[in-house]
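ATP synthase E chain, pasting as requested.
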Amino acid sequence: MAGVPSPYSGVSTLAFVARASAFAVGVVYGSIKLSVLKSQKKAHDKAEAKAHH
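Structure tokens follow.
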């Protein structure tokens, strides 16, 4: 089980914080990107449906 490293565990606190921050930024970016893509697809589908009628 990987948790918060204890002092003198050989794991850099800076590296741990950097990995956690990169993960958090990736999750936020992914959720924003997904919502943008979903809205674009919805607009595209709506325009396509209008063009067929």
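Note for the archive: The mean pLDDT is 86.
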